[in-house]
Structure formats: structure tokens, C-alpha cells
Design goal:
Elements lengths: L2 E6 L3 E7 L5 E8 L4 E7 H23 L11 E2 L2 H18 L12 E8 L8 E5 L6 E4 L16 E10 L9 E6 L16
Parallel strand pairs: 8-10
Antiparallel strand pairs: 1-2, 1-5, 2-3, 3-4, 6-7, 6-9, 7-8, 9-10
Length: 198
């Protein structure tokens, strides 16, 4: 059986979905004077992300969504499933649109060397994938690449990229993605710069 309830105090508001034993299935937390979402986490999502993308995936998930409370939690004011879902959607939207990764394993601006691995739509369209040597793939959007398709890097090009954000897609269940931009774009007709080695 599933239970939904919330607890509030002067500075925070927490919503919980729990099983019969009180273990948190999903948790939403709002805090501060503007009620910003600080947690919008699902235990199942976190476990799946850890299983598929190792500890890096779990760390990135917790940076974006927080982590549900460990162990059973005591009940508070009962709420309906629909009320919990409304709070969940509001918190997820908040974390997806306003969360800026300034800490964690891949903060915004972190520089990584990667190899262009695929241009699935061809040069000049949509973007390209980058192998970072990590369990999660990188993606460079069209807006961060040269206007001329001939100036896009070819598959196998090794160059340096900067992290812009990490995106998660769970419906339908899909892989997280490290969004990138090149740290340097060559002039038209010139080769892509090799990464600067320490």
C-alpha cells in the first residue's frame, strides 16, 4: 500500500510517497522564502541510474534531484495522490529548469577531453555525440558548432569540451546525457585543436 503525506514548518515543506513500512519511494522538498525545490527524488530512478551508469550516474542524479531520505519516515498531514503528483511535477520542473550544477563530479564549466563518436543526423543537423571515456555519453548541440557543415568535426576527432549541464530523461526511460560545448572552434577550413595536455 502507498501513502502520501506532507510535513511543513516555518522554512520548509516536505512531501513524501512511502510504502507501508514508511520507506520513502519519492520525496519532494521546498525551502527558503520563495519555496524553491531542493529535492525531487525517486528511489527507483536513483537505483536504476546507479545500476546503469555506475556511481557517476548516481552522483549526477543527486546533484540534480537530491536524494530521498534513508530509512522509514514518520507520517505527517495526509494528502491525496493527485496533490502529491502536483507537488512532484512542480518540484521536477523547478529542478530541471533552475538547478545549476556548480558542484559534484561534473560541475558546469568542467573541461573534458572527448572523441567525436557519432553524427547520427549528419553534419550541420541537430548535433553530435562525444565519447568521454565515461559511462555517460556527451552531446554537443548544433548551436555550439560552426554554421558550415563542412567545418564540423569528423568522427574520431579528439578535442576539448566544456560541460554546460547534465540532462536526465526518464519517460520513456532513457540515458542521462552530459551536454557539452567545444572550448575552441577552429576558423573555417582549419583542423580542430588537439586538447591541451597537462
Amino acid at each position: 500500500m502507498t501513502y502520501w503525506f506532507r510535513r511543513t514548518d516555518a522554512s520548509s515543506e516536505e512531501w513524501f510517497e512511502t510504502g507501508q513500512d514508511g520507506t520513502v519511494v519519492r520525496q519532494v522538498s521546498f525551502c527558503g522564502p520563495e519555496g524553491q525545490a531542493s529535492v525531487a527524488a525517486s528511489r527507483d530512478e536513483l537505483a536504476w541510474t546507479r545500476a546503469e551508469f555506475e556511481s557517476l550516474g548516481a552522483q549526477l542524479y543527486e546533484v540534480r534531484y537530491g536524494a530521498p531520505a534513508n530509512g522509514p519516515v514518520t507520517a505527517g498531514e495526509p494528502v491525496s495522490e493527485a496533490e502529491f503528483e502536483a507537488a512532484w511535477q512542480r518540484a521536477r520542473h523547478g529542478r530541471n529548469t533552475t538547478a545549476r550544477e556548480t558542484a559534484g563530479p561534473l560541475p558546469r564549466g568542467a573541461r573534458l577531453t572527448g572523441t567525436v563518436s557519432e553524427l547520427p543526423w549528419g553534419p550541420g543537423r541537430t548535433g553530435l555525440f562525444v565519447d568521454l571515456g565515461l559511462p555517460i555519453t556527451g552531446f554537443v548541440d548544433l548551436g555550439h558548432l560552426p554554421l558550415g557543415p563542412a567545418d564540423w568535426p569528423h568522427v574520431g576527432t579528439v578535442t576539448e569540451f566544456e560541460v554546460t549541464t547534465v540532462r536526465f530523461h526518464f519517460e520513456p526511460r532513457g540515458a542521462p546525457q552530459i551536454r557539452l560545448r567545444p572550448t575552441a572552434t577552429p576558423p573555417p577550413g582549419r583542423p580542430w585543436p588537439s586538447p591541451v595536455l597537462p
